[in-house]
Design brief:
By secondary structure, the protein is of the alpha/beta class. It has five helices and nine strands; from the N terminus they run αβββαβββαβαβαβ. The strands form three sheets. The chain has a five-stranded mixed sheet with strand order 2-1-7-8-9, with helices on both faces. A two-stranded antiparallel ribbon has the order 3-6. Helix 4 packs parallel to helix 5. It is globular. Bound molecules: zinc ion (2 copies). The site of one zinc ion (ZN) has 7 residues, from loops. One zinc ion (ZN) binds next to helix 4.
Amino acid sequence: MRPTWDQYFLKLAMLASERATCPRMHCGCVLVRHKHVLATGYNGSLPGLPHCDDVGCLIVDDHCIRTNHAEMNALMQAAKNGVSINGGTAYVTNMPCTTCAKALIGAGIKRVVVFSDYHSTHAEAFFKDADVRLDRQEIPDNIINYDLDDFSSAKRF
Ligand SMILES: [Zn+2]
Ligand SMILES: [Zn+2]
């Protein structure tokens, strides 16, 4: 079945989350404007630094602080490439934490779409106060529906 735009971008966020390197959480984020993907991110260590999966988590106050969160990594990718996300939408696998919510709002994100909640966050209150629309949606089909055998023009190697 052909996914809606929201399902499509949520599935891309799910795909990005497969690259996550912290076993405590796998999160993905896709920043979108006018139906175009502007940046993607997943929770992972700083470039060149060791991964939780390899050296263990770095726990402070019951949070792993080794990784940057998916939303932060997407925002930083946009910043590095000089891409404005002002007025855009953030598709995230999970409700952002308070810090990421504030960063998304500060960067000009106007809509956030998620399919699961996060155990401890003030994101919803900040989004409401900042007039950022928050949409909770059903988790989309977690299968990528691509099968070469379905397509008569495709030829296997
Ligand atoms: Zn970790
Ligand atoms: Zn966060």
